[in-house]
Each structure stands twice: as C-alpha cells, then as structure tokens.
TrEMBL record, chains A, B:
PANTHER family: OROTIDINE 5'-PHOSPHATE DECARBOXYLASE. SMART domains: OMPdecase. Pfam families: OMPdecase (PF00215). GO terms for molecular function: orotidine-5'-phosphate decarboxylase activity. Residues 15-279 form the Orotidine 5'-phosphate decarboxylase domain. The gene is pyrF. It comes from the Bacteria. NCBIfam families: pyrF_sub2. Pathway: Pyrimidine metabolism; UMP biosynthesis via de novo pathway; UMP from orotate: step 2/2. Belongs to the OMP decarboxylase family. Type 2 subfamily. This is Orotidine 5'-phosphate decarboxylase. It comes from Guopingia tenuis.
C-alpha cells in the first residue's frame, strides 16, 4: 500500500492528503439540517459534502485522510457517513488513511485491526466494516499493542502511521523528555523504524510510517535524515501554522518520503477571501492546487524536484 | 462521578468493574447468528448477552467497563450494541467506563469528548451519542489533547482515566524508559495527578484517574503511595495473570482508591470447570462474587477492611 501511495504522489506530483475532518458547522448553507431528524440529516450531509469534495480533487491528489473523531461525535449517523466516505474514496482510487490513533493491549488491538484493516471472520466470510488502506496508531503500549496491526499489514497489504512527534503545542510534554542521550520521540522513531523493516516496498519505504508534525521543523529534519525507510504523514500545514518551508524538510532528495495533510485549509477554503466567488468544490480544488504549488516551490528552493 | 463510583464501591463492598469486552465467539450457543444478516444478528446478540450479564450482576458491582474495540470491529451493528449497552447499564444505575483510549490534538480531542462525555450541540439541543460516566484516554499528546476532556469533566460531572502503566508485556518498552531519575510512567503519573487537582471529590479522589496495570505490582505500589488523590482503574486481574495479592497494593488504608477490572474471567466463566452446570448468567455472578472474596481477603491480609 505504501507503493500505491508513492505511485499516486509521483503521478499527481502532489504529496498531499486532503483531510476530511468534516463538522456540521463547516458545511455551506445548502446542506441545511432537517430539524425533525437532525443527526440523520447531518450524517447524510457530511457524506454528500465529502463526496463532492472527493469528486473535485480526486484527479489531483493521491490520498485522503479521514479523522474518525469528527464522525464519532454524531453517533451512528456520523459513523455511517465515515464508512460511506472511506468506501467512496477507495472506490474512486484514492489511498485512504483513517486517522483513528487506536491503541490497546494485544487482544484488543486485534479487534481494532479487525475494524479497519483485517476484518473479522463470520461464517467463513471476512467483514471489515471500516476498511482503510492505512490507519494511524498510538505506540504507548509498545510492540505487543502494534503487532496485530503489523500482521494485517502483511496479510492484506495495508499500512500504519505511528505517532512519533505530534503537531500540537504540548506535544513535547512527554515526547521531548530526555531518555539518556535521546528524546522520547527519537526512541519511538527508532522502534517504528525497526517494526517496519520487513515491510519495505519497492521505493525503499516501509508500510510502517510515522506521524511527524510539520510544526517542529528541526526535529522533522533530524528524523528524515535518521530514518530513510520511514515514510512520514505530516499534519500541521496551514491552519496549525506550518509553512511549506517547514514541511520541505520531511522529503528526501527525490521529493518522496512524506505526504502532507491539510484539512480545514481545504474544506473551508470557500470561506477565504482569496477564493471569493467560488463554491466549496472549486475553492477546495483551488486550495489543493495552491498547496501543491507552495510545496513544490519550497522543494525546488531546496534543489529537489518531484 | 468519582464520588458516585466510590459510593457504589462502599455500598457493594466490591471494588470491581465487569469488563464487557464481548466478542461473538464468547457467546453461548443460544445466541446463534442469523446467516442471512450475520452482522446485524451478532450486534443484537452482543447487546442481549450484555443485558443479561448486567441484570445478573448489577446489584453486586458498582460499575462496568465497556471496551469499544470489540464493538467497532462489527461496524454499525456493533456500535449500536455498544450504545445500547452503555445506555442500559447507566439506566440501571451502574457507573459506565467506556474504554476508548482516545487521543488527539485539541480540536480533535474536543470531537472525541463530544462523542463520549459532553455532546455536540445541534439546533440548541445537546446530543451525546455514546454518553458515558468515565472514559479512558491516552496522554501522548500532553495537556492540550487532554484539556477538552477535563472541560467536559467539569461541566458535566464526568471523569477520565489516563493511561499511566499498562498491563501488557511490552508496556514498559516506552513507559519504563528512564527520564533523569524517573521512569516515563512516573512522569505521566505526575502530570495526571496535577491535571486532576481541581476535580477532587468529597472522598479525596480526583475525577482524573490513572490506568495502572495489575501485572506490575511494585510500580503500582509506588504509584499508590506517591499519588493519594489519583484513583486507579486496574486491568490485568485474571486472564492477564495478576493475582489478588498483586492488586491489593492499589488500594489505600480504607480499601478505596482503585477499581479492578475483569472481562474474560467473568464473561467466559460459564466455560470454566468450577462453574460447570451454571448458565452464563449464574456463572458470571458466581465469578464476580469469587473475585470480590478474593480481593477482600487479600486486603484483609494487608490489614485493610473495605
């Protein structure tokens, strides 16, 4: 699956995933809720909005990242929208990263892996209710909470991104603690690298990647140099404050090695002055193209061509 | 909510939460799946089984812990069973701990908190689809990923348990790393303690508790002495190998300060030789009473009476 993501990046020249972190408050007026069944109508609206966004960007990006929290908050109507969104995105050929940050002891991690990667067997048939290409996971439990995901990566050609250095302001509260001569996030990155060594694809990157926040440039640069087989999922561009120059350090000399997420910057582009007069679909597409240009320019400034 | 949990423990003299980690393979033969709609019939069966377990134990325990992973793996049918299970358990007066281990940056943590604690406002009405009394959370993001949960704890009288020292074999891979003179889990425990200081209830315990695995006895003993206002949710008894003597160190001199979880030991009691001839409900009840006896004896051996 990491190879499919990289091929998509090479083909579109756009190392971007569009973050479908869709809230009902983000929707344009035409998606008005039905007061009689507000949750159900919001669930339908979330999917309709996402489908239109997907249709407007799917020829120019390789992947979407769908943050499950935004759907969980609407209960079953939201989870139906999540399921339909990831299924639709996969159907049109996008690589789907479900951003779930799941984590638990081995037996329970197996159940999570069943939900998103591997599926549960019932009456001889495999059911994977929220089948995704990648998911994000939290590494706090160590290897035996990760192994079930690795098993499904091998068996079904899936991938994971484990949290290493997160993009939020207090990310360093534990992640930056110094353990002998290294920071905790460096120790985590070392393990993530090791966990992925037998899942390396034909471009030299592993299906076991790392989440590395764009808001911590120096740390990202260090990790990029240290872990040449670890692919980075990079949040923090745009709404969270990171610039293209910040994110350029996450790429290798061939412009590969990272996929940059933007959520609000694309979903809410239709509310920005520079896209005035565009509907939400056109604004989203324009915002993706501007983001692509911004990243490619920053890479070029570093002498890198994708 | 921490006060309600403690009152329930004092009333039942049973510091136990029954872990409803229900899988379709755990169900007795009478819950046969309908081959035509296997997922839906499994969802119904999970709830029916849980309801019968709840009915058979709700007068002898204060709380249940419901592990969402086991429901997510069945998709919407599973999540419906999860929702119905927690609603039913709350209706009959049990304190419900939803074991979700959610974690993310602040804006996304808010969405998770909406789902389980606070609710989302739609058309002036509050909708909390999976309303629980407590949830478990993962602290890897630091305070700004925790603050949204704290806000809802204050506003709605809820509680959280943050992962500190997990019960699994590789739990120490990161948690035991030495940061200056302390282990990482000690650093996390210090923060969890501090996060909870303005949520302390009338028994001297905070609504911000810690997950402390029963399988690491010395560490638990250390944490109990160090953090007198932090209530512990203790997994690892039974199927994971911890004995009552191991778990006794998690309690204070009054027999308070901890609630011990058992999942498979109770749900699957009907398959054990010592409960032969009992149906699953009677076996679950007998297993809870045996567990209570086991814990109270171990406490007594330490000179503690609940």
């Amino acid at each position: 699956m990491i190879d499919k993501l990289i091929e998509g990046i090479k083909q579109t020249k756009c190392p971007v995933c569009v973050g479908l972190d869709t809230m009902h408050t983000y929707l344009p007026e035409e998606f008005e809720a039905d007061e009689k069944k507000p949750l159900r109508s919001i669930g339908d609206a979330l999917f309709d909005f996402n489908r239109e966004i997907i249709d407007s960007i799917n020829d120019i990006v390789p992947s979407v990242k769908v943050q499950v929290a935004y759907y969980e908050q609407y209960g079953s109507a939201g989870m139906r929208a999540f399921k339909k969104t990831i299924a639709y995105a996969r159907k049109v050929g996008l690589v789907v990263i479900s951003d779930v940050k799941r984590n638990d002891i081995g037996s329970t991690a197996t159940a999570y892996s069943n939900a998103y990667l591997g599926g549960v067997e019932i009456g001889g048939e495999r059911h994977c209710p929220y089948e995704s290409d990648f998911i994000t996971v939290n590494p706090y439990f160590g290897i035996d909470g990760i192994q079930p995901f690795l098993n499904d990566c091998k068996k079904y050609g899936k991938g994971i991104f484990a949290l290493v250095k997160t993009s939020n302001p207090s990310g360093g509260e534990f992640q930056d603690l110094k353990v002998y001569r290294k920071r905790l996030y460096e120790r985590v990155a070392d393990k993530v690298d090791a966990w992925g060594q037998d899942l390396i694809g034909e471009y030299g990157y592993s299906a076991v990647g790392a989440v590395v926040g764009a808001t911590y440039r120096e740390q990202a640069q260090f990790l990029r140099e240290k872990h040449p087989t670890t692919f980075f999922l990079v949040p923090g561009y745009g709404a969270q404050g990171a610039t293209a120059a910040d994110i350029a350090v996450n790429f290798d000399a061939n412009g590969l090695g990272a996929v940059i997420n933007s959520s609000r910057g694309i979903l809410l582009a239709y509310k920005k002055p520079q896209y005035a007069g565009m509907n939400f679909k056109k604004a989203a597409r324009a915002a993706v193209l501007d983001m692509k240009e911004d990243i490619l320019s920053a890479l070029k400034a570093n002498g890198v061509n994708l």
